[in-house]
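Our collaborator T.R. sent over the components below with a one-line note: 'Predict the complex.' Nothing else. No constraints on interfaces, no templates requested, no preferences about which chain binds where. So this is a plain run: every listed entity goes in together, and whatever single assembly comes back becomes the starting point for the next discussion.
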Amino acid sequence: MSPEGVTSPNPVGDAIGKSVPRLEAREKLTGQAVYTDDMTLPGMLHAAMLGAPYAHARIRSIDTSEAEALEGVRAVVTAEDLPKKKYVGVFLKDQMTFAGDKVRYISEPIAAVAADTLEIARKALQLIEVEYEELPAVFDPEEALEADAPILHENRDEYPCPYERPEHPNAVAYTQFKEGDIDNAWAECDVIVEGVYETPAQEHMYMEPCSTLVAVDANGKITIWSSMQSVFRVQTMIAEAFDMPMSKVRVIAPRIGGGFGGKCDLTNQPATVALALKSGRPVKMTLSREDDMMMMKSRHAGKIYCRTGARKDGTLVAREMRLFLDGGAYADESPEVSTVAAFFGRGPYRIPHVNVESWSVYTNKLRASAFRGFGNPQATFASERQIDEVAEKLGMDPIDLRIKNALQSGDKWLGGQTVEGGSLAECLEKARAASDWDKRRQNNGKEVRPGKRRGICVSGMSHISGMLSAGAAVRLHEDGTVTVNTGAVDIGEGADTVMAQICAGALGLSLDQVNYGNPDTDSSPYNFQTSASRVTYMVGKAVEQASERVREQMFRHAGEMLECAEDDLELRPGGVIGIRGVGDAAVPFAAIAGRSLYASGGPIMGTHNWLFEGERFDPKRALVRGFALDGIGVFTFGAHVVEVDVDMATGKTEVLEAWCAHDVGRALNPGAVDGQIHGAFAQGLGYGLYEELVWDDGRLVNPTMMDYKVPGPLDLPYKIHPILIENPSDGPFGAKGIGEIALVGTAPAICNAITAATGAAINRIPATPERVLRAILAAEGGS
Amino acid sequence: MRYLAPGSLKEALDILRREDDARCIAGGATLVAMMNADLVAVDVLVGLGRIAELSGITETDDEVRIGAMTRHAEIAASPVLTGALGVVRSAAGQIAHPAVRNMGTIGGSICHADPAADFPAALLAADATIEAASAEGTRQIPIGEFFEDYFETALREGEIVTAIRLPRGPAGARGHHVKFSRVDGDYATVSVSAVLVMAGATCSYARIALGSSGPVPIRVTAAEEALVGSPLDQAAIAEAARLLAEAADPVDDVRGTTEYRLMLIPRLLARALNTLKDGETASV
Ligand SMILES: Cc1cc2nc3c(=O)[nH]c(=O)nc-3n(C[C@H](O)[C@H](O)[C@H](O)COP(=O)(O)OP(=O)(O)OC[C@H]3O[C@@H](n4cnc5c(N)ncnc54)[C@H](O)[C@@H]3O)c2cc1C
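Returned assembly:
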């Protein structure tokens, strides 16, 4: 039963469950897809932003006069040009478009220039004179929480904030979940493992850097085209930053070249809007890769202290976890990230005694934000490494241990929400069978290829799919085809195609008969964001139900036209309604549409809008303190088995093969689901083995693709095997989200396999060759 | 900026002499990226692509000559580069990825003189000679004198590298380049180029060079002497590696810490020597 109490119809026709190609495949493959930077408007200016040279400094003065005087410069903006004290943010509102009195990280934008050409704009940036007074800075979250640490936001308590602020002024948010009797639980344990785990600040590395085009019309209405994950979030936050009504802000999504969470909230839109308002001309700003990496956002680096206890028979008993997540200079999505991290601190296991505490903390670095998995990858890395260590200590098969403790349907999640579709054990079994686990495990530690040691191991994983609200509208055209409108921005993951498939399946149409409209705040129903593995589940449900509303209206017409009861009607593939069991008694959609427009009833349009309202925390079961979001979505489960070879001379890991079992509820488009699993595995492999933003005294040392390495085709195993499990959920036709979960458990599965191969404990990712080699030498007792 | 594409070497050299701020462009893989990043400003670009005499691989009895404009991909596939010269072929095949190998040239690579590149060490191990032309004439620069510092060579203003000349090397020699990088297609964290002759179980000739281990490729004759006369056992390799590591001065950066690079030197040296000892020539 869905949280809103609607069940899915049976799909008609063959649109559902088919790996249809992307609606926009042709356009992308022929280079015709239009991204923001491809667009030009008459009189359009080009823009760039100036970043701060200090990690923490007071701004004494900014002199833009020389820049303004440069020929071809049309506008220069700084904090002075924006409404004062208009802070924006998701929960804790602490951000300004440009640094005002202080800069808090190197490259924080302090000014922007719009000029006739990009070259002139860049030249003008060099002419802006800023006087700074350098301040002591802090780069480590634990140090930032010390009593005498430099304070980033002296005025933190003035910022609008809907939750109780943690005590330390550098703490953005704090969350605690406590269940059972943790203090006395350890005595019950036969084995206790304890460790410190470190995870990196990962760069989103979307293919398309942040890009925005803004035009202002004669009435002052702003139109924004931008590379973003939500037209509505951008609309809300721009209105907030500029203190103007949302009715004066229109946001349109062109094609988007990836987001991964980095474009969930504002990026370079406010700076571009400020320039368009000041110059009175359309302005386009596309960040260079380097500016994007230095100015925008990353994943939260994490340091995780974890302890797990179990009985001899493998029953998990106790778990303690403390997470310190590096939020960088501004809150952005830090509060959600630290609460989600805490929420996954226990993992998908029955552990009766738990205490998880999670902090997100200000430091003088790039702000950290949403990123595929949202704090869960950090918690899961520590958790799954420890589960493996417990198995090792007990001499148990790591899959058996996980299955023994796996949550089942009806069990409670940490905090008290009921688990539906608790299929972790099934995922583990399927991955075990597919990988020929028992046989391959006999190679663990063996030199199958010269100089390399082989290892195979596993990780369980879970995530949520859902969150907040979404709507959809389906309109019947005069010829019987339909148009679907939603606010869901397809950021490259293929949701447009799946939304069209859902509508086609609900109405028995072919995909050619479904037009999928572009998200536009002027005309699209609301959608929160493309995030939280939510579009298929949330927006898809809205599309399914809006289509149902259209069907109901058409049935009313058809009943009258065919002179029968509506209950006797059926949808037939291709846009036809007929009488069940009576072959030739049928009316096409076009006839119904014509009747509705010219004879009876009026135009046919179905809408559906809903909010995910999940179960709340249970105060009798769990102590929940600080900032915590409850009822955020349905749970999803998966298991990865990964096989590696580790080069014993260099410490380099090669991932040979991966089996990724995921319960997706129902695979509406199996090819698209496979694609999400492949992509998430690849990004998780990068997270586990290569990717790490590195700072030296606050300066990002690797802000290029030359220095910051993401995996390329030859770094990925050719054999990544998605294994789709379909236990229908309450989502559209039973589907639930797959966008994030396959990243969540990839790094721990790889590191567990490295340990299986070498005996070396890998508790810090990325597991670079150097770290692995040192761990191997340490395990061998050498130096 | 002006772009000129002379059809002969003489014309190109004339342009270089005539124009103030002229710069050659070969494959452009590095130069264009640097121009895009505002790292270099060029007034006149002299494209070398139309000068036929700069391209291709030719051989005589005692040497192989690689034109400066020869692409990495062609070198990697050359049937002429066998024996000792396998080291150059092996290095070429490990540069970046196919797109860059189809674009970059050996002349561009050595003139750029990035110590993290693969050719410098391979050419040092192969005992190459660099042929450079200027309006005054042609001169031969021994490879050991060509690289002077990070991104600096012995090339003088107005000079163009025309060819890389490779002696055949001693009879029975085999060459191999071992490259270690973080991900496929990255520059080397450390690379080892080796040319060996084995007389039965004993090493009778060794020429070894390290890449990515200092401002220029590194060669230590004492290390080679430690190998010659030995069966390339652990002790001999360890001694050679110790001498090489002593001479190395690797940077500490995102590709690896100094300490890790020093750890890699003996490990990659052993790998290179064992590969050659076992008779597998560079397969790439
Ligand atoms: C993404 C990427 C990855 C790479 N990875 C590697 C790698 O792993 N290993 C590696 O070794 N290299 C690597 N390279 C470098 C590449 O292989 C080329 O060697 C390099 O780009 C230079 O060759 P080019 O022909 O493109 O020279 P250009 O970029 O055209 O020129 C480079 C410099 O040499 C000068 N020059 C060129 N030819 C001559 C000449 N005949 N006489 C005098 N001066 C000349 C130019 O003026 C310029 O200063 C990589 C490059 C890229 C872009």
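Summary for T.R.: Chain A touches chain B at residues 290, 451, 649-650, 652, 690, 694, 701-702, 707-715, 768-770, 773 (CB under 8 Å).
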